[in-house]
Amino acid sequence: MTGLELGYASFPVLLVMIFMRAPIGLAMLLCGIGGLWLTIGAPAMFMSKLKSETYTTFSSYSLTIIPMFLLMGQFATLSGMSTSLFKAAEAWLGHRKGGVAMAAVGACAGFGAICGSSLATAATMSRVALPELRRYGYDGGFSTATLAAGGTLGILIPPSVILVIYAILTEQNIAKLFLAAFVPGVLAAVGYIIAISIYVRLYPDRAGTREAMPYGERWRALANVWPVLIVFLLVVGGIYLGWFTPTEGAAVGAAGTGFAALVSGNLTWRVFRESIIATATATAMIFFIVLGAGFYNSFLALSQVPQELSAWVVGQGFSPWTVLTLILLFYLVFGCLMDSLSMILLTIPIFFPVISQLDFGMSTEHMAIWFGILVLIVVEVGLITPPVGMNLFIINSMDRETPMVETYKAVMWFVGSDIVRVVILVLFPAITLFLIP
């Protein structure tokens, strides 16, 4: 077989390994090693690459931002910020029809601004909001679907670990990607609130009500979220204004949330050690996936698959918008089967060269940023799309009383909101790019 044929043949092999529950990082690593061996005809290349690729990957300064953002999320959970956010949102929205669910979405958006992880946002906010939703008579499927959808805001509203990975893969400016994600992130939260509003009007028996709080209590609850605002402005604002690099900004954010956790009295030595271990574990998992993707993408580059695919698409004369639509549909479908990080690492080295050859009437940098936000959104949809939406399983594990099928039914309202948002952002790129110089 030629190298190109081996490259194409590796895709079904990789998918079979994933469906057999092999860890995605291991599956990509084995496909990459096997492909390099078969293409060259000797093990010397991949043995040499095993040393060089590991060192160059893990010594990358850009990747150090990941453990810092993960640690920031750990400290934010300990500091009680998630509870403060939910109480503040509930104080202002809870008396409305579906208001407690809207408050959960608002709190998820706020927590996502200091966390950067979808799964962590979903798990943390579920512990805070699920009891309140139950208390006020919200349907189990509606409650779990709301929190699963709200959790996806963790990877869209900056800072975002997935955006960092995309920036590294495509050599884009992290600060500009964070800035571009802000408005789509706000649109996501607004879209979810609109979906909740429509749902509770169609099914009024599935959402309870609560009494309105006096304005004095509302302002006091809002005042308690000042640490979140300070950390967010310091990290994202500091990065964009050039006060510090993204990695330094992540370190500042981790220090800020750690200080807030210490002041709250929740950060003991035992908890600090557990946070470091949890951060190291999550970082190791992500880095192993990055390493596996590095080997697999090296094999694909050697086999000429991305180059041939790009040349074939350009040669077919498809319009840029047709190609973009097909790529986004691919992400929507495979988002039901794979986790977001794996999809980004596996597909961006293939799809980005294709998109880069097409003319969307904007600069190359703007196109890369716009495409990155679109990909992030459709990957985010995959987190709540049956049958393998990761957020759905996280929430279901925390509410065993609610059948998964009920969560599936209710979450489709939020999936519909996401699809509408994708269409709007595709048709009007300026919504994403108007803040980018």
Write up this protein.
- With 437 residues, this protein is mostly helical.
- It has helices spanning 3-19, 24-40, 44-58, 65-78, 81-93, 99-112, 118-135, 140-151, 153-156, 161-170, 174-202, 215-223, 226-241, 246-264, 269-303, 305-316, 320-334, 340-356, 364-382, 390-398, 404-427, 430-433.
- The longest helix has 35 residues, at 269-303.
Short description:
The protein is mainly alpha-helical and 437 residues long. Helices cover 78% and strands 0% of the residues.
List the topology elements.
Elements: H1 3-19, H2 24-40, H3 44-58, H4 65-78, H5 81-93, H6 99-112, H7 118-135, H8 140-151, H9 153-156, H10 161-170, H11 174-202, H12 215-223, H13 226-241, H14 246-264, H15 269-303, H16 305-316, H17 320-334, H18 340-356, H19 364-382, H20 390-398, H21 404-427, H22 430-433
Helix pairs in contact: 1-2, 1-15, 2-15, 3-15, 4-14, 4-15, 5-6, 5-12, 6-7, 6-8, 6-11, 7-8, 7-20, 8-20, 8-21, 10-18, 10-19, 11-19, 11-21, 13-14, 15-18, 16-18, 17-19, 18-19, 19-21
